[in-house]
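sorry for the late reply, my laptop died twice this morning and i had to redo everyting from scratch. anyway the thing you sent over, i finally got around to it. pasting the sequence first so we're on the same page, its 391 residues, then the predicted structure underneath. double check i copied it right bc i was rushing
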Amino acid sequence: MGICLKDVGIVCNIGQSKQAVLKSLIDGNANALVKDTSLPLTEPQFVGHVALNLDDKLKAPSSRHSSRNNQLAYHAFKQIESSFSELAKNVDKKRIAVIIGTSTSGIAEGENARKTLAQSEQYPDDFHYQTQEMIAPAHFIADLCQATGPVYSISTACSSSAKALVSAKALIEADIADIVIAGGVDSLARLTINGFKSLESVSNGKCAPFSQGRDGINIGEAAALFVIHSTASGIQLMGFGETSDAYHVSSPSPDGSGAISAMELALDMAQIESKQIDYVNLHGTATVKNDEMESLAMHTVCGNDVFCGSTKGMTGHTLGAAGALEAAICWLLLSDINSNNEIPANVGYEQQDSNLPEINLSQGQKVSSLKYCMSNSFAFGGNNLSLVLGK
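ok and here's the structure:
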């Protein structure tokens, strides 16, 4: 059964449409990460902030839907609304599902409400606790598209929204749903900005994936939503590999075994060889340990000929939305709007780390063909997922 990623809507710091995001990717936008002084408790941090006036463009049906997360999701949904409506016009609403990966949901709204409580001894009148629930963005999207089939969220840190795509494939293949809106959304919040700082995982400047002097991540925000259904035409979710090495709560297994298995399982399901992959979007957080592990995994599975790189030097690490955002980036590269077969550079790269296994980091170039892409998402607890997309 073919699982088609019919359309995608994207909102992130490098663009708020497919065309804008692709242009930024190909141009190698190195200026999209901006310094923020309002969220960090100590020194400013570079973040991937969505510079879009969201506040007046979403008329939430109730206070439980009023959050920046849902504002981002709303703009992504509007980009796929016509494609979805065309597919759904003769489909029972009970056969339409929504699966959203997230890690922040409405945490920022909870933080602001708690601040008001501390100052005035009462919560704001428009604050609703349900805003913070992990399922909130899934409920919001389901309300927008009137889906009454399975509706749920997945929260497994950085692999959350990649898992949402895999779960969509499972629902369709099990004949539980005919159409699934799946993807991810996460917004900036003090909890994540300062939480990663406390883990000593945040870069002092802009992140530099796979570079000698890399020193950590930059946090970003994004929404990426797919319309997924069963057909053999269009860009396909061809394979996936899920593993859990459970090496450490916040560090990957240094031998790369979990990542290697995930990549190999995805290739096996897609029934292709590693040399057929045209581009791999690496998890590439620019932390010391992730890039050590992932370069080893990439070298083991694909050698040093397959083009690869991290796009987090442009978008930042969008946490629960990262898997869907980076799958969406692969979708854009495979789509007809990428008429020149270009792939993005590994932005932020400064100096080769001689301690890392050799891999073929993209410098932003045209390739002879773009038929297959892989996207890696490796989360806390060794929760690993690789996707293979193809046309």
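The CA atoms of residues 63 and 125 lie 9 Å apart.
thats about all i looked at so far, will dig more tmrw
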